[in-house]
Amino acid sequence: MYWYIQGYEYSGLVILYLPGTFIFLWVIKYFNIRDFWPLVLASSLYTIFIESMLSGAIMRDFWSIFYSLGWHSALAVMVGWFYHQHELRTGNLRRLALTSSLLGFVLGLWATVFWLPEFGPSSVLNTPPFTPGQWSVVDYALLLSYLGVIYVLSQYLLGKFWDAEFHPSRLESGAVLAFLIYLMARQFYHFVLSVMIPLGVYAVVLAGLYYYSDNRKDESNYFTEFATSSVRFIDTLVLLLIPLFAVLAYSLMYLLNPSHLFIRLYIYNVFRSVQFVIGLVFFFYPFWWIFRYQKM
What we know:
The chain is mainly alpha-helical. It has one domain (4-295). The protein has helices at 11-30, 36-54, 57-60, 64-90, 93-111, 137-160, 170-186, 191-194, 196-215, 224-228, 233-236, 241-256, 260-295. Helix 2 packs antiparallel against helix 9 and helix 4 (64-90) packs across helix 13. The relative contact order is 0.19.
């Protein structure tokens, strides 16, 4: 929803994101992650895969790692995969409604960033299937409704078929490995130098998770309620507040028609700063937590 210029073409994006998801889930199982901050650290592997092997952003700019963690790790993994499942399973619908409304409003404000000339029709983003620029409120509302329904269904299915362990078959593992080899071969022309950055970060993250796994206290388990509770479909409808409030925020900005300078200074720059700080916390604090926790 925070990348609305993608439009309705998401099947290809889902396929490309599968290896990153596979890596993330496999790491949770392999290192027996049962605490919050190690989970945050593991989420960085998902983000680094997307922004290195797919977009190549990290290969062009090392600091983009932290911006990426502030979006992908925070929104896709820790909010979309973990927090919403946690709230749905514990039945705290009032808090879920409040945070969903706030998240939707934030996403609606962020959508106005694509009104800026550097992200508009004349930018490099204007390649199929992307449609950058200022969409009408109706077009934006239709797309967000479509994405909202998909999100509700995905959260329900995730809750219904949640497994305490990640058990990929040999066929699934082989398919993901083959896809990873293909992606590496496709970018081989800059592999030797550029890929050293994401591989180096991967090594650091895995080393931290290895230390956590080797010293984890057996009594800690942050996922107890995940294995002992379920998700009701009626509860997932609360998540429709996300697209609803996103459309409300987008409509408000559409009516106010702020200048590009206002959007750049008070939305883009502010959001990017917050995004960078979240990324720094998501990357460095888990290491401090792991080493401090093991010494307690």
